[in-house]
Prior knowledge:
This protein is mainly alpha-helical. The protein has two domains: about 15-85, no CATH class; about 90-120 and about 130-165, no CATH class. About 60% of the residues lie in helices and about 5% in strands. The chain has helices spanning about 20-40, 45-65, 75-80, 85-105, 110-115, 130-140, 145-150, 155-165, and strands at about 5-10, 15. Strands 1-2 form a two-stranded antiparallel ribbon. α2 (about 45-65) packs across α3 and α4 (about 85-105) runs antiparallel to α8. It is globular, with a radius of gyration of 20 Å. The two termini are about 35 Å apart. Residues about 1-5 and about 15-20 have low confidence and may be disordered.
Amino acid sequence: MSVYPFAYSSRTGAPIAYKFSALLQCSPEMVSDTESYQGRRWSLRKNEETCLDAFEMKELRKILRVSWTAKKTNEWVLNKAGVKRELLDIVKARKLAYYGHTMRRQGSCLEKEIMQGTMPGARRRGRPRTPWMENIKTWTGLSVEESIRMTEHRDKWRKYVHVVANPRIEDG
């Protein structure tokens, strides 16, 4: 496979060469803005997290031009691209940052009440949906009260979000 993948100009039909590194750098930003905005709006269930990972791998395979019939593993694709999976981590970080921003607001506001699930009224029929706060509790490992208390200190919360959203694999 060549270092320069080719695309064809819509105007002239001539091949245009792109470096893989340039495509790999701009692709996560284009995708992550849309996907992370959507991820902030709803609570992520396990199958949606799996879908985000699958989407990221599908886009990497498109950039590298690796067909699914080539029987290459995801690890092979990640090694070939020289990147790691980061879309879900970006969504987690942005959602936790948004949570901290909202919880630091003074007084009671509608957004805060919706996040905490304290809206009056009866719930809908059927299986209960995953609450927004459930993701926050799962990702941080903190109770609701502890997380609200921690969000009051912006710098401390930012450092905590960075640790939670970007886990490091320790050798050992």
